[in-house]
Amino acid sequence: MIDSGIDEEKARVKVSKRFNEKNNQIDSYGHGTAVASIIAAQSNQKDHVEGVIKNIEIYDVNVLDANGNGDIDDITEGIEWCVNQNVDIINMSFGIQKDDARLRAAVEKAINHDIIIVAAAGNTLGLYTEYPAKYESVLSISAIDKNMKIYKYAAKGKIDFVAPGVDIVAIKTGKLSHQKELSGTSFATAYATGIIASLLNNKEIHKETVHKDLLEYSKDLGESGCDDLYGCGLLTLNHRK
Question: From the candidates 27, 31, 142, 183, which is the catalytic residue?
């Protein structure tokens, strides 16, 4: 997880390794903790938050500050660190507006090491898809609500799949603790990562053919076939019949 850090106690997840431990304040923003809880929080009757997948190793790559901003060099260094740790999936629940050669090179290196990168398409009011989601080799995730309608601020363009991302139940800490709801492609990306990790763990998909394999675990929405709003549909844990 490349994000703002993870408060593992509050998120109820187990962090195996950390990058950038120089940051003494763990996730004062709250974004990384929320994303981690969607992916893998252990069940708790108190707040009804339970992650998509259990018993996985989460590597906390803390590169975003208390306002959710990050330096491109820190982000690319975080990706490089993930490559060296031989991770299976990189979750990037954020994006940048413009292409950057440093980011592109780091992403290509990760892909060449058979790492699946799942990234938020962006909350761009129906405009461009952000990077790295816009890269062809990266899985770009957009958000839908409970009625299967696209999130009103979601990006349009290079979209691969959608996942739940409106009024999401997650652990809220830091600056996010005051928000009444959590909505956006960031949180849809977390759901997608949890689903992909589950399918990968059960050997139902393979890293080398992940884009193609996921088509068998998606429900078509919007226009028939893949489109620039819903991508190739809603990711699920159920194989198409």
Answer: 31
Q: Which residue has the tokens 């363009």?
A: 157
Establish whether 211 is a catalytic residue: no
Backbone φ, ψ for residue 146 (5° rounding):
-65, -15
The H-or-E segment that residue 142 falls in is: strand 139-144
Round to whole Å and give the CA distance between 83 and 114.
9
186 annotated active-site: yes
Closest CA to 5 of 13, 52, 49: 13
Exposed e or buried b per residue across 141-152, where buried means at least 16 C-beta atoms within 10 angstroms of its C-beta:
bbbbeeeeebbe
200 by DSSP, 3-state: which?
helix
Domains of the chain: 2-235 (3.40.50.200)
User: What are the backbone angles phi and psi of residue 140, rounded to the nearest 5°?
Assistant: -95, 125
47 annotated active-site: no
Tens-place pLDDT, residues 113-123: 999 999 999 99
pLDDT in tens, 126-149: 999 999 999 999 999 999 999 999
